[in-house]
Amino acid sequence: MLSIADSTLPDMTLVREVAEEAGALAMRFFRSGLATSARIWSKAGGSPVTEADVAVDTFLKVRLSQIMPEAGWLSEETADAPHRLVQDHVWIVDPIDGTRAYLGGSHDWSVAIALLREERPVLGVVYAPAHDALYEARLGLGALRNGQPIAVSPISDLGEARLAGPKPMIDRIARRFPKLRHPPRIPSLALRIARVAEGSIDAGLVSSDARDWDIAAADLILTEAGGLLTGLDSAAPRYNRPDPSHGELVAAPRALHERLIAAITGA
To answer: What CATH code would you report for 158-265?
Structure first.
């Protein structure tokens, strides 16, 4: 069992500083309300990637490896190394979560950093530099936004909840709860879950095929803020598997969580 004072975990101040520096690097190419100044190309499958993604990924790999060199590595922009599967600790990173938002000048993108131990996050940072919002958590010590404690919404009435997520999932719930409120779309999955953690939205939905790097950091932040991130089977995500993808997920306060799953599944 990992203790709160476990000396194997790095100083949170160091990880926070790395996240802030990574965000500053990404901001060099970001233009609010306008197309990015970064060069853009397509990855296999057609997803966009920019020189900012690559620059931030390289920066994070160097700096985080200095903090904990024995940890494995998994990132959206780095070729996967199977050796991570046998490491006690693994860094999981998304250099720019919400690349399409970043490309178009939307502020809703983030830098996500998680440290895993035994398939679960023990440290997480989600930094949204365009919003000047840094979310962080360390196992057992609660969750913070810009240094201040955060907690999930106290809502228990699903019919009045503010839900953010993909329209097909929301539509399945709205058939039973037509008064649902839909905040503006939040392209960054990490930021969507972090906003559930701070209570600015009541619940967040994630469509299938999210990857470890999209959700691991925000998962811990949400859990430490009193919420849950699970699949539709109510099981917590397992990380650092050979295939880092996940099925549909629900992020919500504990009082709302099972009702939300039931509404999605029609149970």
So the answer is: 3.40.190.80
